[in-house]
Design a protein that fits this description.
It is a single chain. With about 280 residues, the protein is mostly helical. The protein contains eleven helices and no strands. Helix 1 runs antiparallel to helix 2 and helix 3 runs parallel beside helix 7.
């Protein structure tokens, strides 16, 4: 283990201990989050100094640092930054978040994953075939992979893609947090005669939900086929707290798919058959 890796691990362990300690303090959410951000900023600053002290000896070391270590520090900072902004903007005080705000935040997270879908698959699949392009500072990043990501080419502490990896880790955690808050808000409201219409978070892609809705329209399973697609879209958008946008354009995109027009329905069928096969 080289010196940079050893110091990075020590810094990460210390940061995690500090964040755990802060989460147990009897402060407001905003105050705990503010303190967590301070610890994250200090740790990232120390990590930057480590990189300046210990130049990478090999490309493998550089890739490992920008793919594995730095994103873990940045992900903590990004997660707490998102939480801080959520609670700071809450009209209900820093202990509560209204359902509308939770829904908008969840939609924004899902938009990020849609915009970076290919890169997300690269990360989730544990691929490494393009690591030299993504995690070495000598390689110029492709702007198509970095929508909405600030990247300074003159900054020797980033390759651009390490920030995307950090956002993915932070947003997966934020997504779980938002979903849990939404589910907590729905408890006790789902019984008969409650007068409330429940909502649930849609965590798949917009294209997948749109594909299902077109399937419902084609098979006439909603209102005996007499309910207009536009009405179905509005109902499902409200139920799943999502904006499907111009869904008619999505239908054209389905036709142009090279791997088949009904990807999600095919995926559902395979998953169901696999489950039925397991239960035999």
């Amino acid at each position: 283990m080289n010196k940079l890796t050893k110091e990075a691990l020590q810094l990460l362990t210390l940061l995690q201990e500090q964040l755990t300690s802060e989460s147990q303090q009897p402060f407001s959410v905003l105050r705990r989050t503010e303190l967590a951000l301070g610890h994250c900023q200090k740790a990232i600053g120390a990590l930057r100094q480590c990189v300046n002290r210990y130049p990478f000896a090999t490309s493998k070391e550089e890739i490992s640092f920008f793919k594995i270590f730095k994103p873990r520090f940045m992900a903590e900072w990004l997660y707490y930054q998102e939480l801080y902004q959520l609670y700071e903007r809450s009209p209900l005080g820093d202990a509560r978040l209204p359902p509308e705000q939770l829904g908008k935040a969840l939609w924004r997270v899902q938009q990020f994953f849609e915009e970076h879908h290919d890169f997300y698959l690269y990360w989730r699949a544990g691929r490494s075939d393009r690591d030299e392009c993504y995690f070495m500072r000598s390689k110029a990043p492709d702007s198509r992979w970095l929508p909405g990501i600030y990247y300074d080419p003159a900054d020797s502490f980033s390759t651009g893609y390490d920030v995307v990896f950090a956002y993915m880790q932070a947003y997966e955690r934020l997504e779980a947090y938002l979903v849990s808050k939404i589910e907590c808000g729905q408890r006790g409201k789902l019984g008969p005669g409650s007068g409330s219409v429940p909502t649930l978070p849609w965590t798949g892609s917009k294209a997948a939900l749109t594909e299902m809705l077109y399937g419902f329209e084609c098979t006439g399973v909603v209102g005996h086929g007499k309910i207009p697609l536009k009405q179905m879209v509005k109902a499902f958008e409200a139920f799943f707290m999502i904006d499907l946008g111009n869904y008619s354009d999505t239908l054209s995109a389905f036709r142009d798919r090279k791997t088949g027009p009904a990807l999600y329905i095919d995926e559902m069928k395979r998953a169901l058959l696999d489950k039925l096969g397991e239960e035999k």
